[in-house]
Design brief:
This protein is an alpha+beta fold. It is built from 20 helices and 34 strands. The strands form 6 sheets. Strands 1, 2, 3, 4, 5, 6, 7 and 8 form an 8-stranded mixed beta sheet that branches. Strand 14 and strand 15 form a beta hairpin. The two termini are 33 Å apart.
Length: 728
């Protein structure tokens, strides 16, 4: 992303609306306002640096923050060329922060410590270096990003200098004006106003002026000092009195101990000069350069740390208490926390009767099963629960027939959770998509339901704007509110008994927690875009041989992979991975993606044998002969024929299926009905819902590349139904 840019002079355009009632404003959607404010996102260079912007600002309201930056020895970076995003608190924001810290110190019992803290936060001049360093690095990121480029809710795309991601959410802000359009501090009898999309960072700090572009980055002015929580997720939950029953269950089950895990103490960083590759290293990038058929200079990095991170869905007491009362588990008017926990345990026993009477701390106990299903072993900011990049969504079709979705395994063993984002089908290409909501275990769409098709609305995940009084982003995770308890009962399992398409970058929590997922390539050969390698033994669900080169990458929007997700396996590889759990016992087809390159002279796909294994210690059974992944779809062994008015599309599908292949999903423009993009049906197996299963891929040529985007599991009720399986 070019740092030498400035926002469009129309980028701060507000939708001026002269009305006589507030109701008139409410008819304008946040999506519409966003499009009005950001027509084209055009940027040019302003000539200032971050330093001169702060020092020369006409209001003079950054003198205290400038003092902190200088005291932290970071001021020099604000003057130099580079890419910076700075969240700049005003003098008033700094004063309020100092006041808060002194007030918090009054609660410290030890008088000497209390007096020391109060003295340290008396003014910016008395702040210790450690505090200045923390404040400065919290507010500074070493990449440039603009609010104009952001979606509705989520996290900024790059971490700050403390390696923490800052979350944000957007909302419509009403600003009262005089007849000339000048802002007023309050209504003062006026009935003229403008509506602006505003942003809050980490739920507490409002961006009062965004996208002030300078020569070496961008400045966002905020009204409060950012104070990201340094607590682990369990500690953050305890601070929120709105979820006391749910939190009490977290600690009763000792799942709190899991939520206190963060950095793997057994992991050591990769030494790049001794990696087991023959490719040269680039010390300035700390990366290994490798090549594939089309890329000769991709940069692979390995995580400096292996982190354990989590996403949790919590039910507020205001919803949970009436629910438990209605279920006959809690007496009306009984607000005791212990009574609430007992009631929740009683309800859990009705859903998971096999765990009744067992100690809460046992994974098989009823309460433990109930709570475990609310936790994912990876961190997912709101915009990464599903793919949300505009470039990828522009290629998405059939929003009225299938939501954008991902399947995740939860902390409940052998369980699956489907998370779906519904978008307005009227959204146009290159215009911000209007998100209807994100849901758990939803099936079908509103449009199909209107046509009489089965529809399960699912449980809505509320964005961070619903948690306004408490922090929801911890050092090792994030939590959201949901409207009811999440159950992995028979009804949910039936809902999930569908074609299960698991994107490759979600198949291990290490892919997500390391940041490997979500990197959208900006341009071919861009040095800022890295693939991610993983150390053997430190990548959950995956295992591979010493000769295997294994990378996770997020491709450009136009590449032949669904949503850009891709794992690339290279060399004489031998890799195996645990398949996602199936929701019900039955016979399933297991399908693997292939982008063959067909007749291209750069075809490097190779041949592989696939094996299947039941259980971690079972024997591998070959389920295919060597599959030639270099075959073009039009090869008779595959049977691909382009759909047209003169062809029988169902007959084409049947022929391909009988040959062991299927066309690419048609929901993504770049792969729909592409000759070189297809699915390989590698095996049909009877699979039990409470068992682990593994798939293995072994290259049988001298070397090859196997890029795959997803794995599918489809039960016999799907692939062998009277009504043909849809093509989405």
């Amino acid at each position: 992303m070019n740092s030498l840019r400035q926002k469009n002079p129309f980028g701060k355009l507000m939708l001026a609306v002269a009305v006589t009632t507030i109701a008139g404003a409410l008819q304008v959607s946040c999506s519409d306002v966003w499009s009005e404010q950001h027509p084209g996102n055009y940027y040019i260079n302003s000539g200032e640096t971050v330093a001169t912007f702060l020092e020369n600002h006409p209001s003079g309201e950054f003198t205290k923050f400038v003092y902190i930056l200088k005291a932290a020895n970071i001021w020099g970076e604000m003057k130099t060329y580079g890419e910076h995003t700075l969240f700049a608190p005003t003098n008033d924001a700094i004063d309020e922060y100092l006041k808060q810290r002194r007030e918090e110190a009054q609660l410290v019992k030890d008088q000497y410590k209390r007096d020391s803290i109060i003295a340290a936060f008396a003014s910016v001049e008395t702040l210790p270096f450690k505090v200045c360093d923390s404040i400065a690095k919290t507010h500074l990121c070493t990449k440039t990003f603009y609010c104009a480029d952001m979606g509705g809710d989520g996290a900024f795309p790059y971490p700050n200098m403390l390696d923490r991601f800052l979350s944000y959410y957007s909302y419509e802000d009403t600003i009262w004006t005089d007849e000339d359009g000048n802002n007023l501090k309050n209504k003062e009898g006026r009935d003229t106003f403008k509506i602006k999309v505003a942003y809050r960072v980490n739920q507490e700090s409002k961006i009062i002026e965004d996208d002030d572009s300078v020569q070496n980055g961008v400045v966002h002015i905020i009204d409060k000092v950012l104070r990201p929580s340094n607590k682990f997720l369990s500690g953050l939950l305890k601070e929120n009195k709105e979820i006391s029953i749910f939190t009490k269950a977290i600690f009763a089950t000792k799942l709190s101990d899991t939520l206190d895990m963060y950095v793997d103490p057994n992991y050591t960083p990769v030494s790049y000069d001794s990696t087991v590759t023959c490719y040269h290293t680039t010390p300035d990038l700390c990366a290994v350069i490798y090549s594939t058929a089309y890329e000769s200079d991709e940069h692979a990095t390995w995580p400096e740390q292996r982190k354990f991170m989590y996403t949790l869905f919590a039910v507020p007491d205001s919803i949970l208490r009436p629910f438990l009362i209605n279920q006959g588990c809690l007496a009306e008017g009984d607000n005791d926390e212990n009574a609430g926990l007992d009631a929740l345990r009683k309800y859990a026993e009705s859903v998971y009767p096999d765990g009744k009477g067992k100690a809460d701390t046992l994974r098989e106990s009823s309460l433990n099963q109930l709570i475990s299903y609310h936790i994912l072993p990876m961190i997912l900011t709101y915009d990464q629960l599903n793919t949300s990049q505009q470039e990828l969504l522009d290629n998405r079709v059939f929003c009225d027939e299938l939501d954008v979705e991902d399947f995740y395994e939860t902390m409940l063993p052998h369980s699956l959770m489907r998370i779906s984002t519904a978008y307005d089908i009227a959204s146009k290409p290159n215009v911000k998509k209007n998100r209807r909501g994100i849901f758990i275990n939803r099936r079908g769409t509103v449009e199909l339901a209107e046509k009489g098709e089965p529809f399960v609305p699912g449980i809505k995940i509320h964005d961070l704007s619903s948690i306004t009084s408490f922090k929801s982003s911890a050092l090792n995770g994030i939590y959201y509110y949901v409207d009811t308890l999440l159950l992995y009962d028979d009804a949910t399992r039936r809902t999930l008994n569908t074609r299960i398409r698991v994107m490759s970058s979600t198949m291990s929590p290490d892919f997500i927690n390391s940041g490997a997922r979500g990197r959208l390539l900006k341009s071919e050969g861009d040095a800022d875009d890295y693939t991610t390698g993983f150390k053997h033994g430190f990548c959950k669900n995956f295992d591979w041989s010493q000769e295997t080169e294994f990378y996770v990458r997020y491709r450009n929007a136009g590449f032949g992979t669904l949503y850009g997700d891709e794992i690339t396996v290279k060399n004489v590889y031998d890799i195996n991975y645990r398949l996602p759990a199936v929701p019900v016992d039955g016979t399933y087809e297991v399908r693997v993606w292939n982008n063959s390159l067909g007749t291209s002279s750069k075809n490097d796909r190779g041949m592989a044998i696939f094996y299947f294994r039941e259980g971690k210690d079972g024997d591998w059974e070959a389920c295919t002969t060597p599959l030639d992944m270099r075959l073009a779809g039009s090869n008779p062994r595959v049977g691909w024929v382009q759909y047209s008015s003169s062809t029988d599309s169902l007959a084409i599908d049947r022929t391909m299926h009988n040959n062991g292949y299927m066309k690419a999903p048609d929901i993504y423009k770049n792969i729909a009905d592409s000759e070189n993009c297809y699915r390989m049906i590698v095996t049909k197996q009877f699979m039990r819902a409470n068992q682990d299963y593994y798939l293995r891929m072994r290259q049988v040529l001298a070397a090859g590349v196997m890029p795959f985007s997803f794995v599918e599991l489809a039960s016999k009720s799907i692939y062998d139904a009277e009504t043909p399986e849809d093509r989405h």
